[in-house]
Amino acid sequence: MKINTLNKILSLKKENKPFVIIRDLNTNIDFFYNENNSTEEKNFDENFKIICIDALKKDKSSLINYNNKEYFLHVYNSPVRLIIIGAVHIASSLIKIARILRYEVILIDPRESFLNSQEFSNIKTISKWPDEALKKIPIDNRTAIITLSHDPKLDEPALIEALRSKAFYIGALGSKKTHKKRIERLLSLGLNEKIINKICAPIGLPIGSISTEEISISIIAQITQKLRE
Amino acid sequence: MNRKEDQNILSKAQEILLKGSEVALATVISTWGSSPRPVGSCMIIKKNGEFHGSVSGGCIEAEVIENAIRTIEDKKPRRLDFGVSNDKAWEVGLACGGKISVFIENLE
What we know:
The complex is a heterodimer of chains A (229) and B (108). Chain A has 229 residues and is of the alpha/beta class.
């Protein structure tokens, strides 16, 4: 690999936008694909572009054959973004695990005193009403949104906003009973059942979690499952 | 893809190059069956054998390092295939039964 390629990878990564390097390993010639910047490589046509878009979507690097030439497509996706509503106790263990997975975490809670807890001192926090805050964050198909506050006043406007978005995962903490009531309220607000069903609730994979740490593991496991499905 | 982890490895490679040392890059370019690290995982190796990152669960690293040092010396890229069908399966085969292809090249 030429040092120019290495430098370009590092500078593109700083921008935090997804891209693919298309590498001809036999000639050591590399070119790049990203959303706004198509490449000058003559072999790169519409079909090749579709292959790159698909690789980004699947988050999968691979060797491909194109026009009788072999290329290695190396996918550099943006990190998974995890938006948490509710700076409550469980958020802190969830954030710890999310950090191991290198997620970009954003914590939203209008109660500033909750956000000021030491445990949330080194992540991005937004002290606004969740729906208002969510409207200002670009939510793409690598974003997961979860509500933890237990308070319908905070959780539900966030869920409604989340259901309108491209988020790949939407989860809501609360028992089956709580969720049943939540569904009734969302239905009465005019949302249809099919859309409401996109909410994972009770949140997390059913592994019999009891402690907040165990519940956090079950939530992250479910997010991983949705991300990779 | 473990983007930030690989970024750290590549930043490290840039650092080494800026210091004037030679460094090789090994990248998993293809896998079949179960394999511990996904395609795209990489590792950098210095001439003295010092390395950062990983391309497997530890099963093939030694072989990759040895070949990377050769690549630094003869400036020739290499492609290594590991797996049960490999001649070297007894030495460096993947315990998980998978197969893996690693591309080794100089950063120049």
